[in-house]
Structures are given as C-alpha cells and as structure tokens.
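=== Structure Prediction Worksheet ===
Name of assembly: unnamed complex
Input type: mixed (protein and possibly other molecules)
Chain count: two
Listed entries:
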Amino acid sequence: MAADELAYATIGELGARFRRRDLSPVELVRAQLERIEALDPVLSTFVTLTADQALADARAAEAALRRGDAGPLGGVPVAYKDLYATRGVRTTAGSAVLAEWVPDHDATCVARLARAGVVMLGKLITHEFAFGIQFPGHRFRPAKNPWSLDHIPGGSSSGSGAALAAGLVAGSLGSDTGGSIRGPAAFCGIVGLKPTYGRTSRAGVVTLSWTLDHTGPMARTVEDTALLLQALAGHDPADPASSRAPVGDYVAALGQPIRGLKVGVPRDYFHDGLDPEVARAFEEALATLRGLGAVVEDVEIPHIWDAWAFMAILLAEAFAYHERDLRERPDLYGEVLREKMLAGALVTASEYVQAQRLRARLTDAMAAVLRRVDVLATPTTPKPAPTFAAVHDPGFPFARSNMAPFNMTGLPALALPCGFSASGLPLSLQLAGRPFDEVTVLRVGHAYEQATAWHRRRPPLTPRGVIS
Amino acid sequence: MTLDEVRARMRAAGVEIREDRLELVRRLLADALGPVRALDTRAEKPLEPAVTFAAAGARGGDGG
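=== Predicted Assembly ===
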C-alpha cells in the first residue's frame, strides 16, 4: 500500500515532486492502485477502476513532464463521481437504469481536467441518481465513511468524499443539487466547493434538477480545490446555464490576508437544531477568523425559511426528467428513491412556479446581505454523519439542509474541516460568497485552513482497511 | 397536507405510491410546500420566478 505520505500528498506537492523528478506519475499511479486494491473492498468507493488506462495515461503524463509540456495538473490521479459521462467507460449514476451505459462522450468537466493532464483512476459511487440512498440489496454497494465504517460518508458524492479521505485519489468531482458536494466533504473531513451556478459546466452530467444542479471540485485542501476549479471554470456552449462571467485567478488570491474582510453569520435557520459539538466547533472557527483580522458579525437573511421550497423544485424537476422511466420500468429504481421521485408528480404547476418566485425573493435577500458582508459563514451540516442504520429506516426524514439555500440562490459555497466530534467524526465550516466571487470564498477558506490543522488529520485506516 | 390530499394528487397525476410509504411522501410534500402555501400571491405580484443565465447559443462544448 502506498505510504500515507504519498497517498495524502496535495496536488501542489505532487506537481512539485513531478517537476523535480523525484516522483513519477507512473510510480504514483501504481502505488494508488495498490492502495485502492487494499482498502476499497471495505470502503466501496469505486464502481469502475480503469487501471490499464490510468497506467497508460500516467506514462503519457510522464512523457509530457519530460518534454516540459505537461498541463497544470499533469500526472495528478483523480476519479469522478459516476454521474459524469466518460467516453468508453461505464457511467451508472449509481442506478440499475444506467448500469451498463457506456457514453460515447466525456462530460465537459472531465474533458477539461483531461486537458489539464490528470490521470483518471476510475469512477466513484454516487447515491442512486444523486438522490436516493443505496439500501441493502441495491445493485451497487454504498461507500463507507473512512472515519467510521458504521457512518455514512454523506451523499450523493459519497464515493468522492470517502476516496479523498482514504487517500485513494488526489482530487475528484462531485455534483451538488442540495449539498451533494459539501455534505460528503463535511462528513468525510475534506474540502468541497459548489461554485456559482453557471461557473462550471453541467454538460454530460446526469441531471437531477436542472435549475439546482451544480458541478464542482472536491479535494483535501483549499489550494487543491482552487487548482481544480481553475481547470474547470469557464463558459461552455454545451451547457445552456453556463456563464460568460470572467474566470478569476483562484490560486493567486490564496495567502492574501483577510484582515478587514467582513464575515456575516446568519444564525436564524442555519443554527436550528444544531448539535452542541457542531456549535462549539463553529464558534471556535469564528474566533479563528476574528484572530486573522476578519470582522465577524451576525446578520439576518429575510425569507431564509423559504429555502425549504427548494425541495418542491427538486422533486418536480426530477420527476420531469425521470417520468418515462418511472412509468415504464419503475422496478429499476430503488423503492424509496422511486417514491420520492413520484412525489414530484404531486407538485402542481402553480406550486412549482410559486417555489421559483420564493427563490427569486430569497436570492434578492441574500444579495442585499452580501452587499454588507464579503462572505457568509455557517455550519455545513447541523450534525455529524449519521449511521447507516439510521438512514436505512425508510422513515428517516430528509433533513433540512444548511446547504440548499445556496443551491436556491446559486451562490458559491465552500465546505472545509473545522473540527471533530468526541467520537472522531469530522465537523465542517461552510463559507458562501457573492456570485462568481469564488476568489474571496477560497481566500477566506484558505486563511482559516492555514491557521488550523484539521485538514491534516487522517482517518484510522490500516493496510487491511479496518478501522483501528 | 393530509393523506387524503396525497391520494387525490396521486389520482390526478396518474401515479401509484405504496400505501405504507404515503406518510413519508406526505411529510416530504408538507415540508416542501410549506413556504409555498405561506406565500401571499396577491401581496407579491411583482415577484417573478427566478431566471437562469442566458442561453449560450449553439450546442457543442469541449466534452469530446
């Protein structure tokens, strides 16, 4: 198994070692494949491993590095949520419906990372169609949380979060409709960014809800997240929602002081039902930000409770996307997912429109607050990861989300580690910013990360994948 | 939102949901539609649905 030092190297460190020639992409990929072989039978993060192609791509990256024309992410081992189309490689969406689908094209994000030089190790499990939970007996096994095998890794980008936490990949892609990048980031103790709606392309990514779906990077540090975003961001004519807003220099802003930046703390809604350990970690995070010179102040977001109307939009759009398959081959859907999606048929046209009107009102309200402060800070999730046993109860409620308000408003939102529960589960801070101001969000996140050591903790894995 | 209302909506939509899952669906819809039902549509007449960014023209991105 690859030594932890190598498995947990950052993308920046790997790039520097490649350029110094004291590590080769082929050597790294071999080590990562050995680590996956050792740990993944327990963690179940990969749906498809593309080992031969990865070694071939690593050899190509090595040659490019030798020639001096490697891309900015040359030789970096990544894997993708199995919602992203990959040419010639099965793309299941975690679903029996697409279990054997082999796309003839790459998703735009996959193509852009390939152009930047990454090496794809394979495809990572997602919750079924990015919405359902894999119940026992499902076609695909659920990923497990490397911090505690009894606890879920979050979803729907479950494999991405768990694989990063276990040191199986250096970077990944997730998708986020109501928190599916940030939730797994929170529960697995890694970093996830949902960029502004329109910043990164959705083309070639299986849809859950057109107006709420976002794509974005997941990594172990804020800098790595910024490096991935740099390769992903920019207009894509294949995505009707793609924006032509200028792309920032996401890496250059890191390391700049945050003295004087205003951090708004909306407590109404976001602190409802907060676990005491999460509350304590969050307040300590605010103290750290104050210590770095940020001005931290409470803010009120009018109409914030309207955010829950996001579920009406999600259900209606998901049903519209899946209607034919739900009616013609319902047996291919997990039964709890099927019933949630069928609930979308029960939302009336008028209710859908009213939910979109509430969304406009909330977007205006948040924009007004973000004229007074530079970023908003909230706990990413109100509680640490629940157990599999809890979520396998069909009556387990779809928890109110601290992340969904930023899907409703399209604002960029970053999740990063901010502590651990007494039982050793990761806790997470969420930072959200103005439209297309990922630069400031990442800058504040990076400043916080550099002042703390949470991102350096590793899950208690042994070479056999057993929690020690 | 009552179970009878859920059943009426199912009939209108032409879908079937297992009887033992109806309570789950009822709760999901009640939560999702709570803010919608609280909206005074007459008081908010100027409020239009959210729009997304303008379409970017011809298809064909860099996904190959």
